[in-house]
Write a structure and sequence with these properties.
- It is an enzyme of class 5 (isomerase).
- The protein is mainly β.
- It has a single domain, classed as Beta-galactosidase, Chain A, domain 5 (Distorted Sandwich).
- Helix content is 6%, strand content 36%.
- The protein contains three helices and 26 strands.
- It has a nine-stranded antiparallel sheet with strand order 10-11-12-13-26-22-21-16-19, with no helix packed on it.
- A hairpin with a 4-residue loop joins strand 2 and strand 3.
- It is globular.
- The protein starts with a helix and ends with a strand.
Length: 353
């Protein structure tokens, strides 16, 4: 898979006139993961199941397809993942207006976000790749020069460890995540993701309007379709209430239990419908956005065809959406000061059951 992907992804040039640089990491179990410098993007995730290999990450196989898709497949998202209402926030009594790109709001950092940049890449060792990016003061309207880094490490425990760091010379909201979509039956299995069984260790979720902007306060999940404290299939309560109907499914943030924030306790786990593969997630971020691929229809896939809605799910570790405008929420501040370093980690562990 990796050699084929290297060849197909580099046949076409990227936006800047040069081909992408592709990197593949492998471990002692035969698992392999591939990345490219455009968007510091996670391109492929192949897990060995006995005598078969299962590609569990939704993706594309050519640069042309990558430039066509608008679903942020596997991309590093920043400066600020998720939405900022009207692209406006206040820091130290100064109002900042950043560029908007979805329904009058700023989504995933703006129209020319980190997703669309060529990152500098360095293979630190056989099982780690590091991408770095310098974002100038005023980039997309955000204050301060930001130097960002994301490293991907593949361990022999079938873990993909994503470590983020960033510094800024002016106070600025920073919220980096990866927008991987998974289907544990296989990215090209033609099966939707709604038969997967999910656990999220979160007792509260954040309702939002049809544009994805938070409305009101956090709500208890108990007694709602958002209760994943015990394992249940995504389809069990799918589209069961008004909050989901506004988003055409799940596209909501969950505030994780405090024991998850150290990155050691399991924050979420997903089991494939055939019971053969489980994904466990750990993170230092306070929240997870669950997205069930509600608008994937028309997105190109590796087979030269297109994905359909709900072809995969995303579990995006992040701060709650629109956090710059909600300092009252019970989570660490998303505003990074010049004397601070932004530092977070998310681990995806793939267990063959």
């Amino acid at each position: 898979m990796s050699n084929t992907l290297h060849q197909s992804m580099t046949q076409d040039i990227a936006f800047d006139g040069s081909p992408a640089k592709i990197f593949t990491l492998t471990n002692s179990n035969g698992m392999s993961v591939s990345f490219m410098d455009i968007g510091a993007t996670w391109l492929s995730c192949c897990v060995e199941l006995g005598e078969t290999t299962r590609e569990v990450l939704l993706g594309v196989s050519t640069m042309k397809q990558h430039q066509q898709q608008q679903a942020y497949l596997g991309a590093t998202v920043g400066r600020y993942a998720n939405r900022i209402e009207s692209g406006r926030f206040v820091i130290n009594d100064e109002t900042h207006q950043v560029l908007t790109n979805q329904a009058g709001n700023c989504l995933h950092g703006g129209p020319d976000s980190f997703t669309h940049r060529r990152w500098l890449a360095e293979q630190a060792c056989e099982q780690t790749i590091v991408f770095t990016l310098e974002s100038p003061d005023g980039d997309q309207g955000f204050p301060g020069k930001v130097n960002a880094s994301v490293s991907y490490t593949l361990t022999d425990k079938n873990e993909v460890v994503i470590a983020y760091s960033a510094t800024t010379d002016k106070a600025c909201p920073i919220n980096l995540t990866n927008h991987a979509y998974f289907n544990l039956l296989g990215a090209d299995s033609q099966s939707d993701c709604l038969g997967h069984s999910l656990v999220i260790h979160a007792s509260q979720y954040l309702p939002s309007d049809k544009k994805g902007i938070p409305v009101g306060e956090l709500k208890d999940v108990q007694g709602t379709s958002f209760d994943f404290m015990q394992s249940k299939e995504l389809k069990q309560d799918f589209m069961a209430d008004h909050d989901q109907q506004l988003a055409a499914g799940y596209d909501h943030s969950f505030l994780l239990e405090t024991e998850c924030h150290q990155g050691k306790a399991t924050a979420a786990s997903v089991t494939s419908p055939d019971g053969k593969l489980r994904l466990e997630l750990q993170t230092t971020k306070p929240a997870i956005q669950l997205y069930t691929g509600n608008y994937l229809v028309g997105c190109p896939n590796r087979e030269g065809s297109e994905y359909v809605n709900h072809a995969g799910f995303a579990l995006e570790t992040q701060y709650l959406p629109d956090s710059p405008n909600h300092p009252e929420w019970q989570q660490p501040s998303c505003i990074v000061q010049p004397e601070q370093m932004y530092k977070h980690q998310t681990t995806y562990r793939f267990l063959v059951v």
